Automatic annotation (TrEMBL):
Keyword Membrane: yes
Source organism: Streptomyces andamanensis
Signal sequence segment: 1-21
Span list, region Disordered: 235-255
Keywords tagged on the record: Hydrolase, Membrane, Metal-binding, Metalloprotease, Protease, Signal, Transmembrane, Transmembrane helix, Zinc
Listed EC numbers: 3.4.24.-
Stored Pfam families: Peptidase_M48 (PF01435)
GO molecular function, one term: metallopeptidase activity
UniProt key word Metal-binding: yes
PANTHER family: POSSIBLE SENSOR-TRANSDUCER PROTEIN BLAR, SLR0241 PROTEIN
Protein's UniProt name: M48 family metalloprotease
Classification of source organism: Bacteria, Bacillati, Actinomycetota, Actinomycetes, Kitasatosporales
Domain Peptidase M48: 111-185
Length: 311
Protein backbone atom coordinates (compact mmCIF):
# COMPACT_ATOMS: atom_id res chain seq x y z
CA UNK A 1 0.00 0.00 0.00
CA UNK A 2 1.45 3.40 -0.96
CA UNK A 3 2.07 6.20 1.50
CA UNK A 4 -0.90 8.40 0.44
CA UNK A 5 -3.33 5.54 1.04
CA UNK A 6 -1.73 4.72 4.38
CA UNK A 7 -1.89 8.36 5.47
CA UNK A 8 -5.52 8.54 4.41
CA UNK A 9 -6.58 5.91 6.94
CA UNK A 10 -5.87 8.05 10.05
CA UNK A 11 -8.11 10.75 8.55
CA UNK A 12 -11.00 8.33 7.99
CA UNK A 13 -10.86 6.13 11.09
CA UNK A 14 -11.97 8.91 13.53
CA UNK A 15 -15.31 8.93 11.71
CA UNK A 16 -16.06 5.55 13.33
CA UNK A 17 -15.20 6.82 16.82
CA UNK A 18 -18.47 8.64 17.75
CA UNK A 19 -20.69 5.54 17.44
CA UNK A 20 -18.17 3.37 19.27
CA UNK A 21 -17.71 6.05 21.95
CA UNK A 22 -21.45 6.20 22.64
CA UNK A 23 -21.61 2.44 23.04
CA UNK A 24 -18.52 2.34 25.22
CA UNK A 25 -19.90 5.11 27.43
CA UNK A 26 -23.17 3.23 27.89
CA UNK A 27 -21.66 -0.21 28.49
CA UNK A 28 -18.43 0.38 30.40
CA UNK A 29 -18.05 1.41 34.01
CA UNK A 30 -17.64 5.23 34.11
CA UNK A 31 -14.03 5.15 35.26
CA UNK A 32 -13.02 2.63 32.59
CA UNK A 33 -14.97 4.53 29.94
CA UNK A 34 -13.11 7.71 30.87
CA UNK A 35 -9.73 6.08 30.26
CA UNK A 36 -10.72 4.21 27.09
CA UNK A 37 -12.47 7.16 25.44
CA UNK A 38 -9.73 9.67 26.26
CA UNK A 39 -6.93 7.36 25.14
CA UNK A 40 -8.66 6.60 21.85
CA UNK A 41 -9.44 10.29 21.22
CA UNK A 42 -5.85 11.40 21.86
CA UNK A 43 -4.35 8.66 19.66
CA UNK A 44 -6.80 9.28 16.83
CA UNK A 45 -6.23 13.04 17.01
CA UNK A 46 -2.46 12.70 17.05
CA UNK A 47 -2.43 10.28 14.13
CA UNK A 48 -4.74 12.42 12.01
CA UNK A 49 -2.53 15.46 12.63
CA UNK A 50 0.57 13.43 11.74
CA UNK A 51 -1.11 12.24 8.53
CA UNK A 52 -1.90 15.82 7.53
CA UNK A 53 1.70 16.72 8.21
CA UNK A 54 2.80 13.86 5.98
CA UNK A 55 0.72 15.16 3.09
CA UNK A 56 2.14 18.67 3.56
CA UNK A 57 5.72 17.34 3.63
CA UNK A 58 5.34 15.32 0.44
CA UNK A 59 3.82 18.32 -1.30
CA UNK A 60 6.67 20.59 -0.22
CA UNK A 61 9.29 18.12 -1.40
CA UNK A 62 7.77 18.29 -4.87
CA UNK A 63 8.79 21.96 -5.07
CA UNK A 64 12.31 22.67 -6.41
CA UNK A 65 13.30 24.85 -3.44
CA UNK A 66 12.41 22.27 -0.80
CA UNK A 67 13.74 19.42 -2.95
CA UNK A 68 17.09 21.22 -2.99
CA UNK A 69 16.95 21.79 0.78
CA UNK A 70 16.19 18.10 1.20
CA UNK A 71 19.15 17.21 -1.05
CA UNK A 72 16.95 15.23 -3.43
CA UNK A 73 18.92 14.15 -6.49
CA UNK A 74 16.03 12.18 -8.00
CA UNK A 75 12.32 13.02 -8.27
CA UNK A 76 10.33 12.02 -5.21
CA UNK A 77 8.05 9.22 -6.39
CA UNK A 78 5.06 8.93 -4.09
CA UNK A 79 2.02 9.72 -6.21
CA UNK A 80 1.22 11.74 -9.33
CA UNK A 81 1.61 15.51 -8.94
CA UNK A 82 -2.08 15.89 -9.80
CA UNK A 83 -2.83 14.06 -6.52
CA UNK A 84 0.01 15.24 -4.28
CA UNK A 85 -0.37 18.98 -4.85
CA UNK A 86 -4.13 19.29 -4.06
CA UNK A 87 -3.72 16.92 -1.09
CA UNK A 88 -0.86 19.01 0.28
CA UNK A 89 -2.81 22.26 -0.09
CA UNK A 90 -5.90 20.78 1.57
CA UNK A 91 -3.80 19.29 4.39
CA UNK A 92 -2.00 22.60 4.98
CA UNK A 93 -5.32 24.41 5.18
CA UNK A 94 -6.73 21.84 7.62
CA UNK A 95 -3.64 22.05 9.82
CA UNK A 96 -3.82 25.84 9.83
CA UNK A 97 -7.48 25.77 10.90
CA UNK A 98 -6.78 23.19 13.62
CA UNK A 99 -3.74 25.09 14.89
CA UNK A 100 -5.68 28.34 15.04
CA UNK A 101 -8.53 26.70 16.95
CA UNK A 102 -6.09 25.07 19.36
CA UNK A 103 -4.30 28.34 20.08
CA UNK A 104 -7.57 30.18 20.69
CA UNK A 105 -8.85 27.41 22.96
CA UNK A 106 -5.65 27.24 25.01
CA UNK A 107 -5.54 31.01 25.45
CA UNK A 108 -9.19 31.19 26.49
CA UNK A 109 -8.74 28.28 28.90
CA UNK A 110 -5.65 29.80 30.50
CA UNK A 111 -7.47 33.12 30.97
CA UNK A 112 -10.50 31.37 32.46
CA UNK A 113 -8.34 29.32 34.84
CA UNK A 114 -6.46 32.40 36.01
CA UNK A 115 -9.70 34.30 36.57
CA UNK A 116 -11.26 31.39 38.45
CA UNK A 117 -8.22 30.91 40.69
CA UNK A 118 -8.04 34.65 41.34
CA UNK A 119 -11.70 34.67 42.38
CA UNK A 120 -11.20 31.61 44.60
CA UNK A 121 -8.05 33.12 46.12
CA UNK A 122 -9.90 36.26 47.07
CA UNK A 123 -12.12 34.57 49.65
CA UNK A 124 -11.26 32.55 52.77
CA UNK A 125 -11.22 28.79 52.19
CA UNK A 126 -12.52 26.15 54.57
CA UNK A 127 -10.20 23.30 53.69
CA UNK A 128 -10.66 22.80 49.95
CA UNK A 129 -14.00 24.64 49.86
CA UNK A 130 -14.28 28.21 48.52
CA UNK A 131 -17.67 29.93 48.75
CA UNK A 132 -18.18 32.86 46.39
CA UNK A 133 -20.88 35.41 47.10
CA UNK A 134 -22.92 35.39 43.88
CA UNK A 135 -26.62 35.50 42.93
CA UNK A 136 -25.96 32.84 40.27
CA UNK A 137 -25.95 29.17 41.33
CA UNK A 138 -22.75 27.42 40.34
CA UNK A 139 -20.32 24.81 41.63
CA UNK A 140 -17.26 23.22 40.07
CA UNK A 141 -13.95 21.52 40.81
CA UNK A 142 -11.08 23.92 40.17
CA UNK A 143 -7.85 22.24 39.04
CA UNK A 144 -4.45 23.40 40.15
CA UNK A 145 -2.47 23.23 43.36
CA UNK A 146 -4.06 23.17 45.79
CA UNK A 147 -7.29 21.76 44.38
CA UNK A 148 -10.37 23.78 45.23
CA UNK A 149 -14.12 23.23 45.22
CA UNK A 150 -15.78 26.48 44.19
CA UNK A 151 -19.45 26.94 45.07
CA UNK A 152 -21.57 30.07 45.09
CA UNK A 153 -23.89 31.19 47.85
CA UNK A 154 -26.83 30.93 45.45
CA UNK A 155 -26.05 27.24 44.82
CA UNK A 156 -25.81 26.55 48.55
CA UNK A 157 -29.24 28.14 49.05
CA UNK A 158 -30.66 25.98 46.25
CA UNK A 159 -29.80 22.69 48.02
CA UNK A 160 -30.58 21.24 51.41
CA UNK A 161 -27.87 19.99 53.77
CA UNK A 162 -27.86 16.39 52.47
CA UNK A 163 -27.75 17.54 48.87
CA UNK A 164 -24.82 19.81 49.62
CA UNK A 165 -22.89 16.81 50.93
CA UNK A 166 -23.53 15.05 47.62
CA UNK A 167 -22.37 18.13 45.74
CA UNK A 168 -19.15 18.38 47.73
CA UNK A 169 -18.46 14.65 47.36
CA UNK A 170 -19.07 14.91 43.61
CA UNK A 171 -16.63 17.78 43.14
CA UNK A 172 -14.01 16.17 45.38
CA UNK A 173 -14.23 13.03 43.25
CA UNK A 174 -13.43 15.15 40.19
CA UNK A 175 -10.32 16.57 41.84
CA UNK A 176 -9.26 13.24 43.30
CA UNK A 177 -9.61 11.52 39.91
CA UNK A 178 -7.81 14.28 37.99
CA UNK A 179 -10.77 14.54 35.64
CA UNK A 180 -9.67 17.96 34.40
CA UNK A 181 -6.79 16.28 32.57
CA UNK A 182 -9.19 14.00 30.70
CA UNK A 183 -11.45 16.92 29.80
CA UNK A 184 -8.51 19.02 28.59
CA UNK A 185 -7.14 16.15 26.47
CA UNK A 186 -10.54 15.48 24.90
CA UNK A 187 -11.03 19.20 24.22
CA UNK A 188 -7.71 19.44 22.38
CA UNK A 189 -8.39 16.21 20.45
CA UNK A 190 -11.74 17.58 19.29
CA UNK A 191 -9.93 20.47 17.61
CA UNK A 192 -7.68 18.10 15.66
CA UNK A 193 -10.51 16.27 13.86
CA UNK A 194 -14.18 17.30 13.66
CA UNK A 195 -15.36 13.69 14.02
CA UNK A 196 -13.91 13.63 17.55
CA UNK A 197 -16.22 16.34 18.88
CA UNK A 198 -18.91 13.82 19.92
CA UNK A 199 -16.16 11.81 21.65
CA UNK A 200 -15.31 14.93 23.67
CA UNK A 201 -18.90 15.02 24.95
CA UNK A 202 -18.75 11.29 25.74
CA UNK A 203 -15.60 11.90 27.80
CA UNK A 204 -17.34 14.73 29.69
CA UNK A 205 -20.31 12.45 30.42
CA UNK A 206 -18.00 9.66 31.62
CA UNK A 207 -16.24 12.09 33.98
CA UNK A 208 -19.56 13.25 35.44
CA UNK A 209 -20.82 9.68 35.76
CA UNK A 210 -17.64 8.64 37.57
CA UNK A 211 -18.06 11.52 40.03
CA UNK A 212 -21.78 10.70 40.41
CA UNK A 213 -20.97 7.13 41.40
CA UNK A 214 -18.27 8.27 43.82
CA UNK A 215 -20.68 10.74 45.44
CA UNK A 216 -23.43 8.11 45.71
CA UNK A 217 -20.98 5.73 47.38
CA UNK A 218 -19.80 8.47 49.76
CA UNK A 219 -23.31 9.33 51.01
CA UNK A 220 -24.64 5.77 50.70
CA UNK A 221 -27.86 6.83 48.95
CA UNK A 222 -28.23 6.70 45.17
CA UNK A 223 -31.66 8.39 45.19
CA UNK A 224 -30.30 11.29 47.24
CA UNK A 225 -27.38 11.60 44.80
CA UNK A 226 -29.78 11.63 41.84
CA UNK A 227 -31.92 14.30 43.49
CA UNK A 228 -28.90 16.46 44.27
CA UNK A 229 -27.57 16.22 40.71
CA UNK A 230 -30.97 17.13 39.27
CA UNK A 231 -31.50 20.09 41.61
CA UNK A 232 -27.95 21.39 41.09
CA UNK A 233 -28.41 21.21 37.33
CA UNK A 234 -31.81 22.92 37.51
CA UNK A 235 -30.40 25.69 39.67
CA UNK A 236 -27.32 26.03 37.46
CA UNK A 237 -29.43 26.90 34.43
CA UNK A 238 -29.45 30.47 35.77
CA UNK A 239 -25.67 30.52 36.12
CA UNK A 240 -23.58 33.04 34.23
CA UNK A 241 -20.33 31.44 35.23
CA UNK A 242 -17.31 31.70 32.95
CA UNK A 243 -15.69 28.64 34.50
CA UNK A 244 -12.99 26.86 32.50
CA UNK A 245 -14.05 23.99 30.27
CA UNK A 246 -11.53 21.79 32.06
CA UNK A 247 -13.25 22.48 35.41
CA UNK A 248 -15.89 19.76 35.78
CA UNK A 249 -19.20 20.68 37.39
CA UNK A 250 -21.99 18.62 38.93
CA UNK A 251 -24.67 20.37 36.90
CA UNK A 252 -23.09 19.83 33.48
CA UNK A 253 -23.54 17.13 30.85
CA UNK A 254 -26.73 15.27 29.90
CA UNK A 255 -28.30 15.37 33.35
CA UNK A 256 -31.36 13.14 32.58
CA UNK A 257 -29.05 10.28 31.58
CA UNK A 258 -26.99 10.76 34.72
CA UNK A 259 -30.05 10.79 36.96
CA UNK A 260 -31.45 7.68 35.26
CA UNK A 261 -28.16 5.87 35.81
CA UNK A 262 -28.11 6.82 39.49
CA UNK A 263 -31.68 5.64 40.03
CA UNK A 264 -30.83 2.29 38.45
CA UNK A 265 -28.75 -0.44 40.04
CA UNK A 266 -24.95 -0.02 39.77
CA UNK A 267 -23.84 -0.99 36.28
CA UNK A 268 -21.98 -4.28 35.84
CA UNK A 269 -20.04 -4.35 32.54
CA UNK A 270 -20.48 -7.47 30.42
CA UNK A 271 -18.83 -8.98 27.39
CA UNK A 272 -20.47 -6.45 25.09
CA UNK A 273 -18.66 -3.67 26.97
CA UNK A 274 -15.32 -5.43 26.54
CA UNK A 275 -15.93 -5.93 22.84
CA UNK A 276 -16.89 -2.29 22.33
CA UNK A 277 -13.84 -1.04 24.19
CA UNK A 278 -11.64 -3.43 22.21
CA UNK A 279 -13.10 -2.16 18.92
CA UNK A 280 -12.49 1.46 19.87
CA UNK A 281 -8.92 0.79 20.96
CA UNK A 282 -8.33 -1.34 17.86
CA UNK A 283 -9.48 1.61 15.75
CA UNK A 284 -6.91 3.80 17.50
CA UNK A 285 -4.21 1.14 17.13
CA UNK A 286 -4.96 0.74 13.41
CA UNK A 287 -4.73 4.50 12.98
CA UNK A 288 -1.37 4.54 14.76
CA UNK A 289 -0.09 1.63 12.69
CA UNK A 290 -1.18 3.22 9.42
CA UNK A 291 0.33 6.61 10.24
CA UNK A 292 3.60 5.05 11.43
CA UNK A 293 3.86 2.80 8.37
CA UNK A 294 3.01 5.68 6.07
CA UNK A 295 5.66 7.86 7.71
CA UNK A 296 8.25 5.10 7.29
CA UNK A 297 7.28 4.68 3.64
CA UNK A 298 7.64 8.42 3.03
CA UNK A 299 11.02 8.36 4.77
CA UNK A 300 12.21 5.46 2.59
CA UNK A 301 11.08 7.21 -0.60
CA UNK A 302 12.88 10.38 0.47
CA UNK A 303 16.07 8.34 0.99
CA UNK A 304 15.63 6.85 -2.49
CA UNK A 305 15.24 10.36 -3.95
CA UNK A 306 18.39 11.38 -2.08
CA UNK A 307 20.26 8.45 -3.61
CA UNK A 308 20.93 6.94 -0.19
CA UNK A 309 18.74 3.84 -0.63
CA UNK A 310 17.60 1.55 -3.40
CA UNK A 311 13.99 1.03 -4.39
Amino acid sequence: MTAPLLLLLPLLLPCAAPALARRAGDRLAPGAALWVLTTAAVVLAGCSSAALGGFVLTGLLKLPLFAALGELVHPLRIAPDAVVAPAAVAAAGALAVCAGALVRTVRAEVRALRAARAAAGGVPAAGDLCVLDSPYPDAYALPGRPHRIVVTTAMLRSLDAAEREVLFAHERAHNRGGHHWFLAAAELAAHCHPALRPVREAVRLAAERAADEAAAAAVGDRRLAARAVARAALAGQRSRSARPRSAPAAGSGPVPRRVTALLAAPHVPGRAATRTAALLLACAALSFGASATGALDVHHRVEVAQGEASR
